Amino acid sequence: MARVLEVRRDDLRTARIVDAAPAPLGDDQVHFAVERFGLTANNVTYAVLGDRLRYWTFFPSLEAGWGRVPAWGFARAVETRCAEVPEATRVFGYVPMGGEFIVTARRVDERGLHDGSAHRAELPAAYNAYRRAEPGNRDDATMVLQPLFLTAVLLARTLAGASRVILSSASSKTALGTAYLLRRGGNEVAGITASVDFVNAVGVYDEVVGYEAVEELERRPTTFVDLAGNARVRAAVHRHLGDALEASIVVGATHVDAGGQEGTLPGPRPTFFFAPDHLRAGLDAEALDTFRELLEWSAGWLELERRDGPEAVLTAWDETVAGRVPPTTGLSLAL
């Protein structure tokens, strides 16, 4: 038995810790126990979009109405029926928040393996890859930042030709990484945030406004990137900028209570940016080098905080869903 976090799929504020036992192993299967995992608003996005993008399918709960939110973390093999993945093999990849999980090892090599389990076969391949990982001093930063900053790298590439980019949820780590790369590439970048002072202090935006001050943004050619998933803010941006909007891109959904329907909006129709769709060919060396650059840059403003045990993990989830974790904090958790 191992403890794992589960949440109500229809009420993300309701969470619990349960004991879960994995099924017996079949041929080529490996039983992994989760060591640590990162928690950010990105995990809230997984839960908000859990039905639409099938995030609940990766690590299904045994009880209807409950779900195990995926996270990025480290796990170690505790039982195996695959000779190429011996016990004690440590990997980094997509894991449940605590507990244990079973993978069907495929494409095993010195770098890692892929999960070929039937229930994950139709899910994005980027989430099914596990790389071998010895313990290191950047483990906490990797768990918290890799999925966010790699999304930032992909977003910055997509937006490279934009004359001006406005990012909502501008204090989020994905937005900060994207703004850093766009500014470095010569783009003009504005941010919309509830944390104006912090975002200004980081210094990667040309202009920063609060959510109540969208009308202060100058009306000129702009690409809007919505990382908050807040329908009211998206509607305000569209109505204010109108025909000046060249594109409207939805990336995340960190504002749990503000999805809603915005009705017919002026300007371009919002389109969804799904990072795994941009990873089908894998990560090239330039993307990995850029991620490492972002990792070094973040050390100047991000504090990594470890929390261990059931109560600490439940509290961390509650704070993250409610948006109470400071943007300067990255959470590394263990059950």
Description of the structure:
By secondary structure, this protein is an alpha/beta fold. The chain has two domains: 167 residues, Quinone Oxidoreductase, Chain A, domain 1; 133 residues, NAD(P)-binding Rossmann-like Domain (Rossmann fold), CATH 3.40.50. Helices cover 25% and strands 30% of the residues. The chain has seven helices and 17 strands. The strands form three sheets. A six-stranded antiparallel β-barrel has the order 3-5-6-9-8-7. A six-stranded parallel beta sheet has the order 12-11-10-13-14-15, with helices on both faces. A three-stranded antiparallel beta sheet has the order 2-1-4. α7 links the parallel β16 and β17.
Outline the secondary-structure elements.
Elements lengths: L1 E7 L2 E10 L8 E11 L1 H8 L17 E2 L2 E11 L9 E7 L3 E7 L5 E4 L13 E4 L6 H20 L5 E4 L5 H12 L3 E5 L3 H7 L4 E3 L12 E5 L4 H11 L3 E6 L20 E2 L12 H14 L4 E6 L1 H12 L7 E6 L1
Parallel strand pairs: 10-11, 10-13, 11-12, 13-14, 14-15, 16-17
Antiparallel strand pairs: 1-2, 1-4, 3-5, 3-7, 3-17, 5-6, 6-9, 7-8, 8-9
Helix pairs in contact: 2-3, 2-6
